């Protein structure tokens, strides 16, 4: 009898623990019975359990807990084609959450998040491809990005509903050209810049030659004017000197001749060892002869 009571107690405890389940904060739970999601008898809607303590039928009902928080799908950059048949490498991310837990559970192989994100990626990428394919590169990068993301969000939200997923936001983080195209564009831009630089250098050299020739011409004219003025001044000075000499000579010709002779003697004998060969009756020694005679 005691053993029977003990067995009953153990069975009751096991049944009690098997019929209680806890849903944590940030989670929602659904109950699966014989492979089907438990639904409300009146409305037919799936029963979704919120955080807290709940009860279920032991061994018959199985609890499936699902993450109800916002999640970010940030995949690898993908290649998209524009309306011009140009390739772009686009990096995007998607904000999403579960909106229909029963549908999500059934469409993702028992709530497998990796499978859900793979399915969601295909649907969002399909919407993005349609939007990129209807626009040119210029439209995408110059002002159509907001419209593109809005239309992609609408397309992604519509297609994700059949997965039980609500798409909150679709964002294009970065748009790049493929490496081979980027290199080609870079080479073309560099060639264009080099051509412009060569043109500027050529114009600069031409301008420099023009300025140099202009300055050289001005210098030549200034030097010629200075030389002409100096000759005029020198001529005026020589004329004035000649006039002064002539005036002095006219006042006392003998004294003037004497002074000039002394200056000639000084220049002739300033070295001290000069030899002059002159005739004895030369006028050069006229004043010396007079001095000796006196």
TrEMBL record:
Residue ranges constituting the Band domain according to the UniProt record: 18-189
Location within or outside the cell: Membrane
Chief location bin: membrane
Entry keywords, A to Z: Membrane, Transmembrane, Transmembrane helix
Any single GO CC term annotated in Swiss-Prot or TrEMBL for this entry: membrane
The organism's place on the tree of life at top rank: Bacteria
SMART domains: PHB
Protein name per the record: Protein HflC
Originating species: Pseudidiomarina woesei
């Amino acid at each position: 009898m005691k053993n029977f009571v003990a067995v009953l107690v153990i069975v009751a405890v096991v049944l009690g623990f098997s019929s209680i389940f806890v849903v944590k904060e940030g989670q929602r739970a659904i109950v699966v019975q014989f492979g089907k999601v438990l639904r409300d008898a009146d409305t037919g809607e799936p029963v979704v359990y919120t955080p807290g303590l709940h009860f279920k039928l032991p061994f018959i009902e199985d609890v499936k807990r699902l993450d109800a928080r916002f999640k970010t799908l940030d995949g690898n950059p993908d290649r998209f084609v524009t309306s011009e048949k140009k390739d772009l490498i686009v990096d995007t991310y998607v904000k999403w959450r579960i909106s229909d837990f029963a549908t999500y559970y059934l469409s993702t192989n028992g709530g497998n998040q990796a499978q859900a994100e793979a399915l969601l990626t295909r649907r969002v990428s399909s919407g993005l491809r349609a939007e990129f394919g209807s626009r040119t590169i210029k439209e995408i990068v110059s002002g159509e990005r907001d419209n593109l993301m809005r239309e992609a969000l609408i397309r992604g939200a519509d297609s994700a509903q059949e997965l039980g997923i609500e798409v909150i936001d679709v964002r294009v983080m970065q748009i790049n050209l493929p490496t081979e195209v980027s290199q080609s564009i870079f080479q073309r831009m560099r060639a264009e810049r080099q051509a412009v630089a060569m043109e500027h250098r050529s114009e600069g050299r031409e301008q420099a030659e023009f300025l140099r020739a202009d300055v050289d011409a001005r210098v030549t004219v200034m030097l010629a004017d200075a030389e002409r003025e100096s000759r005029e001044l020198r001529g005026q000075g020589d004329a004035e000197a000649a006039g002064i000499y002539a005036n002095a000579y006219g006042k006392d010709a003998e004294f003037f001749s004497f002074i000039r002779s002394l200056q000639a003697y000084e220049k002739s004998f300033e070295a001290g060892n000069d030899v002059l060969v002159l005739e004895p009756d030369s006028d050069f020694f006229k004043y010396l002869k007079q001095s000796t005679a006196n």
